[in-house]
Amino acid sequence: MRSTSLRNDQAGDRASDGSRMGKQSTRRKPEPVLVPADEPLTRRAVLGATIGNILEFYDFGTYSFFAIQIGQAFFPASDPFASLMLSLATFGAGFVTRPIGAIVLGSYSDRAGRQPAMTASFVLMSAAILVLALTPSYGTIGAAAPLLVIVARLVQGFALGGEVGPTTAYLLEAAPAEGRGLAVSFQPASQQIAATAGALVGEILSLAMTSEALNVYGWRIALLLGAATLPFGLWLRNSLPETLHRPELPTLVIQTVGKSPTACRTMRLGFVILASCTIITYVTGYMTTYALSTLHVSAPLAFGTTLVSNTVGIAAALLGGWLADRAGRRHIMIWPQIAALLMTYPVFFWISESRSALALLGGLGALTLIGTIPYSAFYVSMAEGLPKNIRGGAFAIIYAFAIAIFGGTAQPVVTWLIYLTGSALAPAWYMLVASTAALCAMLMMPETAPLKINSAVNKQSPP
Questions:
Q1: Phi and psi dihedrals of 78, rounded to 5?
Q2: In whole angstroms, what is the distance from residue 73 CA to residue 397 CA?
Q3: Residues 279/426, Cβ–Cβ less than 8 Å
Q4: Does residue 175 contact residue 184 with C-beta atoms inside 8 Å?
Q5: Positions of the chain with pLDDT under 50
Q6: How far apart are CA 279 and CA 286, in angstroms?
Q7: What CA–CA distance (Å, rounded) separates 353 from 341?
Q8: CB 442 within 8 Å of CB 330
């Protein structure tokens, strides 16, 4: 009897406590629900994913910096324009296999894990860069030289197609909810670091070597410098912990499963924005060739233009991610994009008219600073808007198709437009169209920042 009474009293106490808790929960506004910060994992994730990304994008992008020299080595022609176009077309061949790599390695990352997919991508890129750097010139082995270069570029494209999606998913999943923007911003920042490293190497080689030596073997040195760091990058990738099956504690970001209408809408908008980002990135990366072949400035100034622009881009990418964690994704996408859109034509007009170091370095640097910020916010917004079970593959596929269609054609299109019109403002026209399309898509993107969504929930909840 006494034990029965005691159990009844305890049950009553629990019921009373539950009732009080229920009443308290209806009176109090919900608190932010955040994923606890795992600082060691976050640091390792950023280090491993970023360094691997840097090495891969350095190897892939260095080709564009030395497009003229590579064209002369593998695609000799009586007309310098024809040689350059053949070289740029081969650069574009690397984009053909990007969607295939995205489908294969991206979906593999959603099944087997992010780490094995990123490691496989890195191994393939390592093999391709060695082939590209060590292939003899057309004058030595004839038609076999351009064939080997094209094969190497196809393998590079496949590897890089499966790199961005798994890496972005990995950075998002390894970061605390309140720091996702900054963590994911290391993805675009690492691409800028790679481009900066390539431009820096080009600047040093152009100052230290004669034009003849740079044309004959200087570009090979640039490629081999990247290849020398491949063992370190492979070791880093192999040591990364897996995040695919790491529990994600509830956040206030609604995650759907599979390709729901919400996820499909995010993917469509993401394709438009990534296409724009691709055009702007590759037109900006084309500035070294543009400065040499169109503006006819000195080689040190041409490489210095890309170096300054990409250095500014690194800071801008990280700043965009940091701001997105504090002000929300949409604000940091939209307002800087409007500013960049208004700046594009005046900056290029200044560059084409003056052809001075101040215009090239200062004008393009300022445009890069403003224009890079919105895309960092977009990266994390899109990754948050995709369900975890398709995040790596979906991001990779959308990115790869945008790159394949618009990245692989950006530099040949700009070169053709300049040749057709005779106007040095052709790059600005192409960038204006791309920026306008991106702004329209950004205006339709939903807010995905956990703290911003929580604030909206608090306002709607009863007092």
A1: -70, -30
A2: 33
A3: no
A4: yes
A5: 1-37, 249-257, 456-458, 461-463
A6: 10
A7: 20
A8: yes
Q: Domains of the chain by range and CATH?
A: 39-240+258-452 (1.20.1250.20)
What does the CA dihedral 51, 59, 310, 295 come to, rounded to 10 degrees? 180
**So what's the pLDDT on residue 250?**
44
pLDDT for 23 equals: 40
Neighbours of 231 (CB within 10 A): 10
Spatial separation of the C-alpha atoms in residues 292 and 287, rounded to whole Å: 8
Q: List all residues 6 or more positions away from 115 whose beta carbon is below 8 Å from its beta carbon.
A: 170, 237, 238, 240, 241, 242
Distance CA 425, CA 359 (A): 14
DSSP 178: G
The amino acid sitting at 349 is F
Spell 102-131 as b/e; 16+ CB within 10 A means b: bbbbbbbbbeebbbbbbbbbbebbbebbbe
Q: How far apart are CA 243 and CA 96, in angstroms?
A: 30
- List, as one string, the DSSP characters of 360-406: IIIIHHHHHHHHHHHHHHHHHHHHHHS-HHHHHHHHHHHHHHHIIII
Alpha-carbon distance of 173 to 45, in angstroms, equals 9
**Nearest 5°: CA angle at 117, between 113 and 123?**
150
Which secondary structure element, helix H or strand E, spans residue 175, and what is its range? none
3-state SS track over 13-26: HHHHHHHHHHHHHH
Q: How far is CA 42 from CA 6, 45, 172, 336, 421, in A?
A: 50, 5, 9, 28, 50
Q: What is the dihedral of CA 243, 401, 83, 155, to 10 degrees?
A: 40
**From the CA atom positions of the chain, what is the Rg in Å?**
25
Q: Rounded to whole angstroms, how far apart are CA atoms 17 and 122?
A: 56
Contact (CB, 8 A) for 223 and 133: yes
Per-residue three-class SS string for 223-284: HHHHHHCHHHHHHHHHCCCCCCCCCCCCCCCCCCCCCCHHHHHHHHHHHHHHHHHHHHHHHH
- Tokens linked to 99: 């969607």
Taking Cα atoms as reference points, which of 324, 338, 330 lies closest to residue 443? 330
pLDDT of residue 38: 54
